[in-house]
Each structure stands twice: as structure tokens, then as C-alpha cells.
From TrEMBL:
Catalytic activity: 4-amino-2-methyl-5-(phosphooxymethyl)pyrimidine + ATP = 4-amino-2-methyl-5-(diphosphooxymethyl)pyrimidine + ADP; 4-amino-5-hydroxymethyl-2-methylpyrimidine + ATP = 4-amino-2-methyl-5-(phosphooxymethyl)pyrimidine + ADP + H(+)
Gene name, Swiss-Prot/TrEMBL: thiD
Protein name (Swiss-Prot/TrEMBL): Hydroxymethylpyrimidine/phosphomethylpyrimidine kinase
UniProt-listed GO biological process terms: thiamine biosynthetic process
Pathway: Cofactor biosynthesis; thiamine diphosphate biosynthesis; 4-amino-2-methyl-5-diphosphomethylpyrimidine from 5-amino-1-(5-phospho-D-ribosyl)imidazole: step 3/3; Cofactor biosynthesis; thiamine diphosphate biosynthesis; 4-amino-2-methyl-5-diphosphomethylpyrimidine from 5-amino-1-(5-phospho-D-ribosyl)imidazole: step 2/3
Lineage of source species: Bacteria, Bacillati, Bacillota, Clostridia, Lachnospirales
Keywords: ATP-binding, Kinase, Nucleotide-binding, Thiamine biosynthesis, Transferase
Native species: Qiania dongpingensis
CDD domains found in the cross-reference section: HMPP_kinase
GO molecular function, one term: hydroxymethylpyrimidine kinase activity
Keyword Transferase: yes
Family classification: Belongs to the ThiD family.
């Protein structure tokens, strides 16, 4: 039997809501075999991030060798990459192994406000790693940092998405989850603006939404979907995971990756 394979290159969140942990849950929910190369260990939970330890870039490189020389990923998701050196080794290895279907979530700052990428790494990210990605998925603050434009409303999004496309040469999904009143995302592929309209679900529990979306897109690509279909399927998955209404932790809780699972013990009757 064969399974589509997806690799995440990202940071670890011990509370399981974001990073590697959210990525692997998402890949499993899509019926894919998930693998992970860890770039950093964070200390965080639903109330915030208290510590970040970047792993030695040589260790990231060795993890990538271990994966690519044994189980070839059908798609790769890249999340938190905290420093220039890590960005460089990832780019080298993805080029060396001719990695395909690369989705880059340019994680810069956690929603709780903790910096997850060193400020001087941005230039290397734009020049070295983003051009290798088949899709980047910035949120609005990341979109502003990458484009140098202010994005105050949905009408500012097309201009910013075009500018990021021009700088990277690849499609951009500019996510509108930080807008007031809607959750509309814009996919710009260099030819057409494709709006993915979303109803904003009233919840504080949106920890790891960006990680989940990018992993779901990578999983869709690994399964052979077109870019637009993969993005649409991912958005539908994330809406379901948000709407499920999981309540965990004392802060901004995670989304529910079990919402499609119809068997097993139920916990909602206790
Ligand atoms: N409250 C919400 N209801 C519905 N969709 C949301 C909500 N918050 C975020 N999203 C969606 O989740 C995805 C990630 O959103 P966003 O918050 O913009 O990025 P990030 O998690 O990287 O900060 C996007 O598709 C966005 O539209
Ligand atoms: C390891 C890791 N990667 C990414 C995020 C961003 O997620 P969020 O925007 O929900 O804080 C995070 N908090 N931790």
C-alpha cells in the first residue's frame, strides 16, 4: 500500500496547538504520512511563548538528509525558521533533493506577540527561501513586512499580494484572518485574483490556524490536488476545525483536528 508523504520543517510547540505538532495532526487528518524536521524548540502554551531555543543548523540539515535519503516527501511545509543560517541550510537541502510542492508559512511573530524569527533573517528569507516555495501564506502583519505596504483592509490586499509575488516569483495566499468581521483570504497566482471568502467564527481559540492551513495545503498538493483546490480544501478543513469549538487551556486554545473523526470514545457527554 502507498500513502502520500508530507514533511514539515518547523518549530515545536509542546502544548500541541501550533508548529510541528499541529502540522502532523493536520497531515494525518488528510490521510497523509507526516514527517518532521525540527528547527527550534519553543516553550509555549495557550497563554503565550516564554522561550525559544534555535537548534544548530547542522542538526536541521542532518534531519533533512535523514528524511530525503529514505522517504521522499510528496510535499513540504515550512513554518518557523528562526535564523539566517537555518534558512540557508534548508534552501540548500531542498535544492539538492529537488523537493517539490513546497508551501512556506513565513512565521515571524506568534499571535501572543513573541518574536519567532530574528529580524535580520527576513532578507535571507525573501532572497533565498521564498523563491523556492510554490506558495507562501503570509498573514496580514507578515504580508506588510514582506511587501513593505500597509494592509489596513481587504482593498489593500491585492496590491500587497502582487508585490510579494513579484519579489518571489511564486503564488501567494494572503490570509485575512486578522481583518475585522471576515476571514477572507486572497490567492494571487500571477494571472488571477482568487478570493476565498470565509465567515469569521467567533472564538478565542485560534492558536495554530496558520500552521494548520499551510499543512493542509501541503497535504492537498501531496494528494495531487491543483493549487487552487488544495487551498480551498484547506480552508474548508480549517473552518471545520475552528467551528468544532474545542475548549482547552487557559488562553487562546488550539483548533480541533478530530472533528472529522466519527468513531471512538465521546467526551462531550460527561
Ligand atoms: N475567527 C476565524 N474564523 C474563521 N477563519 C479564521 C478565523 N481566524 C483565522 N481564520 C482563518 O485562518 C487562516 C489563518 O489565519 P490568520 O489568522 O490570518 O493567520 P495566522 O494564523 O498565520 O496569524 C486563514 O485562512 C484565516 O482566514
Ligand atoms: C512553533 C510555532 N510555530 C508557529 C507559531 C505561530 O502560531 P500562532 O500564530 O497561532 O501563534 C507558534 N506559535 N509556534
Amino acid at each position: 500500500m502507498k500513502r502520500s508523504t508530507v514533511l514539515t520543517i518547523a518549530g515545536s510547540d509542546p502544548s500541541g496547538g501550533a508548529g510541528i505538532q499541529a502540522d502532523l495532526k493536520t497531515m494525518t487528518a488528510f490521510g497523509c504520512y507526516g514527517m518532521s524536521a525540527i528547527t527550534a524548540i519553543t516553550v509555549q502554551n495557550t497563554t503565550g511563548v516564554t522561550r525559544v531555543e534555535t537548534l544548530d543548523p547542522g542538526l536541521v540539515s542532518a534531519q533533512l538528509d535523514a528524511v530525503f535519503t529514505d522517504i521522499r516527501p510528496d510535499a513540504v511545509k515550512i513554518g518557523m525558521v528562526s535564523c539566517k543560517e537555518t534558512i540557508r541550510v534548508i534552501a540548500e537541502k531542498l535544492t539538492e533533493y529537488h523537493a517539490q510542492n513546497i508551501v512556506m508559512d513565513p512565521v515571524m511573530v506568534s499571535t501572543s506577540g513573541h518574536r519567532l524569527m530574528e529580524p535580520d533573517a527576513m532578507d535571507t528569507l525573501i532572497r533565498v527561501l521564498l523563491p523556492l516555495a510554490d506558495l507562501s501564506t503570509p498573514n496580514l502583519p507578515e504580508g506588510e513586512a514582506l511587501s513593505g505596504l500597509t494592509i489596513a483592509s481587504g482593498t489593500d490586499m491585492p496590491c500587497a499580494a502582487r508585490k510579494i509575488y513579484d519579489a518571489t516569483g511564486h503564488p501567494v495566499l494572503l490570509k485575512g484572518g486578522h481583518l475585522d468581521g471576515c476571514a477572507d483570504d486572497l490567492l494571487w497566482n500571477g494571472r488571477e485574483e482568487i478570493w476565498l471568502r470565509g465567515r469569521q467564527i467567533k472564538t478565542k481559540n485560534s492558536h495554530g490556524t496558520g500552521c494548520t492551513l499551510s499543512s493542509a495545503i501541503a497535504s492537498g498538493l501531496a494528494l495531487g490536488l491543483s493549487l487552487e483546490s488544495a487551498v480551498r480544501e484547506a480552508k474548508t478543513y480549517l473552518s471545520g476545525a475552528l467551528a468544532a469549538g474545542l475548549e482547552l487551556g487557559n488562553g487562546r486554545g488550539p483548533v480541533d483536528h478530530c472533528f472529522r473523526i466519527e468513531w471512538g470514545p465521546r467526551h462531550d457527554t460527561e
